[in-house]
Every structure is written in structure tokens, then in C-alpha cells.
């Protein structure tokens, strides 16, 4: 098969190669998926650079956890009826060397989830990390209740855009932050009630004013280190800060402001969702897909030969939406 791979960590154009590797054979309990679209996430870039918390050491790595395609072979114990099924993939590159940036991937059958007919392969390649992360951020710790105020940091980001939509679907009143007019329009299309340009406006004042001084019940935070200095000022009493990203690995937290505000902090990483939560997340996400109400945003599409450019686009961080690599 043709695959993109790297054998040492480093800059995309230095280490990513495209070439022929042996076709993988599905072991017992596995399926082989013909990949149609492979999603590129910031964590794929961090793993390739060696800066991610989830970096594994393997002599050769095919990148990318997310993808979508068609099951075209099954291992022992997997119903042959699954051959021909359209699927989306999660965790292909979590504690495993070979991800989705290849013509084929083999992986445990439950990591290939039926992809509803109304959802194309490119959108299917955005689900494993961005959409499941957004779902968990909205549902963790009892979930958002209708009528609550929620602040989604970075509502034009890949995760943030899904989070705005999912919070709205729960009946929340959603405030989000963006940088610039184009991202503002994108966040509004997701249903945000109030969009704050964080580079041009006072976020704390705008959130406090919108919520009548009470603050939000929940923050869904993409940059914990970047925003923690002021977050306690916009969280309601007994509110929750759900953190899925941070620009720095260390950040000081105000004990005084946190304890007086009875603030909860929930960090999580979607790669190791507990089994029961993963099952709930997948069922809920597939129901949302079938209902056809979820907007997906493909920022850019690259071929396998252009994988270094795909990584550089994600690394630059100026795209609006997901970057995917498509395979013939
Ligand atoms: N915990 C997990 O399981 C998990 C899962 C998925 C992603 N992540 C992490 O989450 C981050 C975002 O991933 P993504 O795929 O959504 O990336 P993305 O599509 O590049 O979006 C990132 C967004 O964050 C916004 N942003 C950056 N700094 C900000 C700040 N200080 N305050 C508010 N917004 C800010 C950006 O908007 P502006 O234009 O306003 O800067 C941008 O829209 C990455 O670090 C990724 O590794 C973690």
C-alpha cells in the first residue's frame, strides 16, 4: 500500500515520507479499512514533533488517529457482513504505530464505527478527535442544562465549532470567543448567541455583562494557560471549567479565586475516554449525524503526497476547520 510515515521526530518536510509499505492483514477481532479521508489534528503534529504528551516510540509511524473509509477485509471473529461498510475511525494512532495516513489501516473492529449515509468521508475524518472532544466537553460532569450560560473559548476552532453546536443543541446560551471577523461569522453559523473578538474586546466585561454579572455555568477551554488568569472572573458560583487544551504545559491557578468561587476544574484527553463513556459518546454522535444537524468544516484538502503541507497548515493554526488528506 502507499502510506505516509516517519522514522524520526522533527519538522514535517524533513521527516514525513511517502512510499510503499506492506498491506496490513487484519488479526482476529480486527477490520481492514480502505481509507478515503484521513484527518490531521494538532496532536498528530505534536506527536511528530515530539512535543505531545501522547508520543509513543515506534521505529516507524504512520500518522493520524482520525479517518474514514470502507471496511474491505475482516479478521477472525468479525462478521463478514461488515465488509463494504462505510466507517469512521477513532484512536488509530493512540498507543499504536500505524494510523490512517495510508491506503489501509487495520484496527480493532469497534474502532471502526458505522458512518451514516448522509455524512461524507471527509466529515467522517473529523469525528474521532474534534467531535468526540466537543461532545465530552459538553456532557462531562452531568452535562450542560438547558438555559445555562456557557463560554466556549475559540468557537471557530475544530473542536470549538462542534462544541458551540452541541451546547446549543442542549439548550444552552452560548458565548464564544474568536479572533477576527471571518471566525466570528463562522462561530455565528454554529449558533453562538454572543461572539466576542478576544483581540479587540474585553472578554471578561462582555461575559459579565451578557450574564447579568453572574458568569457562566461552564467554560469549555482550548487554552488553559492563556486564559486561566481571568477565567475565575467569568465563572458563576459552583461553575465548571472544562479544559481540553493549553498553549503551555504549566499554568498558575488562583487558589483564592477558585475556592471562593467554588470552581470545578475538569481536564480530560479524548484518547483515553473510559469504555462506557466512549460508547455513549459514539452513540450520541452518530444520532446527531443521522439527524443531519451537525455542521462540519473542511478547511483544506491535501493528497497523500502533500502530507507535509497538510501538517504545516495545522501547525500554522490559521485554518478555519479541519485539514484532511484524501486518498484515491
Ligand atoms: N484534550 C483532548 O482530548 C483534545 C482533543 C482535541 C484537541 N485538543 C487540543 O485542543 C487544541 C485545539 O484543537 P483544534 O483541533 O480545535 O485546533 P484549531 O482548529 O486550530 O482551533 C484552535 C482554536 O483555538 C483558538 N485559540 C487559540 N488560543 C486561544 C486563546 N488563548 N483563547 C481563546 N481561543 C484561543 C483559536 O482561535 P483564535 O483565532 O481566537 O486564536 C482557534 O480557533 C489543540 O491544542 C489540541 O491539541 C485536545
Query: Which fold name fills CATH's third level, the topology of the largest domain?
Result: Quinone Oxidoreductase, Chain A, domain 1
- Can you tell me the number of structural domains? 2
Please report the total strand number as a whole number.
15
Order of helices and strands, N to C?
A: EHEEHEEEEHHEHEHEHEHEHEHEHE
- Biggest β-sheet: count, sense, barrel? 7 strands, mixed
| Strand content range | 25-35%
Describe this structure in words.
The protein is of the alpha/beta class. It folds into two domains: 2-126 and 296-326, Quinone Oxidoreductase, Chain A, domain 1 (Alpha-Beta Complex), CATH 3.90.180.10; 131-271, Medium-chain alcohol dehydrogenases, catalytic domain (Quinone Oxidoreductase, Chain A, domain 1). The protein is built from eleven helices and 15 strands. The strands form three sheets. Strands 3, 4, 5, 6, 7, 14 and 15 form a seven-stranded mixed sheet that branches. A six-stranded parallel sheet has the order 10-9-8-11-12-13, with helices on both faces. The protein has a two-stranded antiparallel ribbon with strand order 1-2. Helix 4 (127-139) crosses helix 5 and helix 4 packs across helix 10 (275-291). The protein is globular, with a radius of gyration of 20 Å. The structure holds NADP nicotinamide-adenine-dinucleotide phosphate.
